[in-house]
Design a protein that fits this description.
The protein has 15 helices and eight strands. The chain has about 400 residues and is of the alpha/beta class.
């Protein structure tokens, strides 16, 4: 624009000079000529230039050429911003601050690349809980501390609801009456009934033998002519020499405690080793007490060291002194044998039926003689002296009595 103005001005100047040179000089001489020179341009200017034209300084051809050389080429970066440009830029900046662009209005999901970047646990903020996975490959996610919401939920779930401090007297009285009216539980009732059932049964225990034998003779049965020594000292352990009479008393005392704890009534023919009680007298103790079961505790002996196990003796069904008790005696013997061998794992040597035993023949109540093991066998001896095995024997005999009387826990 500036160059064009300059060129236009130069052309006008040349035109004015040419018109001035073509005029005739006036009579006034040089003064008029000079005055005309001064006024001519103005007249020409008024005649030829448009009304909105801006007057520019007059330049000579040399000045024009020199200006062309000195004026540097203009670039967009060298131009100074005008007021309108500044206003435009300001308006643009304000518009960009207030109006969101397309990129800003697009959802954030569109800016996520298709292939997610590899993330590590170290880059994950500590407060951000990792999403659960099916493989549970990160043990940290399972042991992570619960968030505030989770902790609050747990606290609310464990809080006990407030209980009113005061209750009405009517409510308390009703609660007391309901408590008093509640019947006992089934377990308590059953236990009480079983304890009561057992209490009606009397068990007589006879620890066999005694410390000093009594070799006097007595008949083997009522009215019998055959006799036997009243009582012997019994056998002893093959390895330890433990006497039978001492061992069976220990086990009998344990059995008494167990039976009484279950509710049975128990009597014993002896509680000491230093006694002198014959076999007939022992049977009479059970008979006179009206025992519901008479258990005679013994240990067996054999010339063969290989014999072992448990056997139980009772009278036969052809007993010459009393045949009426045979069914009960055999039932008691077979029941005890089953429960004892089951409790101990000992060999079952069966029920041995005999009619030559004073204690069996004189008994007028269900009577059995229990051979708890062979002291002549080293393994049986060791078991019989072991407290845990003795407890098994006791449990087996007590369970046998429960089964015999039809009592079930």
């Amino acid at each position: 624009m500036r160059r064009r103005n300059i060129l236009t001005a130069a052309v006008l100047c040349l035109a004015l000079l040419a018109s001035a040179c073509g005029r005739n000089p006036a009579s006034n001489g040089s003064t008029d000529t000079e005055q005309e020179k001064e006024t001519a341009p103005e007249t020409a200017k008024e005649a030829t230039l448009p009304g909105n034209y801006i007057e520019l300084p007059r330049l000579t051809v040399e000045a024009q050429e020199s200006e062309k050389e000195t004026i540097p080429p203009q670039t967009e970066s060298s131009e100074e911003p005008t007021e309108s440009d500044s206003a435009s830029e300001t308006e643009t900046e304000s518009t960009s601050e207030t109006e969101p662009t397309e990129e800003e209005t697009q959802p954030a999901a569109e800016s996520i690349p298709e292939t997610p970047p590899e993330s590590t646990e170290a880059e994950t903020p500590a407060e951000t809980e990792a999403p659960p996975t099916e493989t549970a490959s990160r043990p940290e996610s399972t042991s992570a501390a619960p968030t505030e919401n989770t902790s609050a939920a747990l606290t609310e779930s464990t809080e006990t609801p407030a209980v009113p401090e005061e209750t009405s007297s009517e409510t308390s009285s009703e609660a007391e009456s309901e408590t008093q009216a509640e019947p006992p539980s089934t377990e308590e009732t059953t236990a009480g009934q079983e304890s009561g059932v057992r209490a009606q049964y009397l068990i007589c225990l006879d620890p066999g033998h005694q410390a000093q034998a009594n070799l006097e003779e007595e008949p083997i049965g009522p009215g019998a002519t055959q006799t036997k020594p009243k009582v012997s000292a019994g056998t002893q352990g093959v390895n330890t020499g433990t006497p039978e009479y001492a061992l069976v008393l220990i086990i009998a005392q344990q059995l008494r405690a167990e039976l009484e704890s279950r509710g049975y009534r128990v009597i014993m023919t002896r509680t000491s080793n230093d006694v002198n009680i014959s076999n007939i007298e022992r049977a009479q103790i059970a008979n006179n007490a009206g025992a519901d079961a008479f258990l005679r505790l013994h240990c067996d002996n054999s010339a063969s060291p290989d014999y072992n196990g448990i056997s139980i003796l009772c009278k036969t069904q052809w007993n010459p002194y009393d045949t009426s008790l045979y069914p009960e005696c055999y039932h008691l013997a077979s029941t005890l044998l089953q429960t004892m061998t089951a409790a101990t794992g000992a060999k079952n040597n069966g029920v041995d039926q005999r009619d030559d035993m004073c204690g069996l023949n004189w008994g007028k109540v269900p009577t059995v003689l229990i051979e708890m093991g062979f002291l002549s066998n080293a393994e049986d001896e060791a078991k019989l002296l072991d407290a845990s095995y003795q407890a098994k024997l006791v449990s087996g005999m007590a369970d046998g009595l429960d089964r015999y009387f039809g009592i079930q826990d």
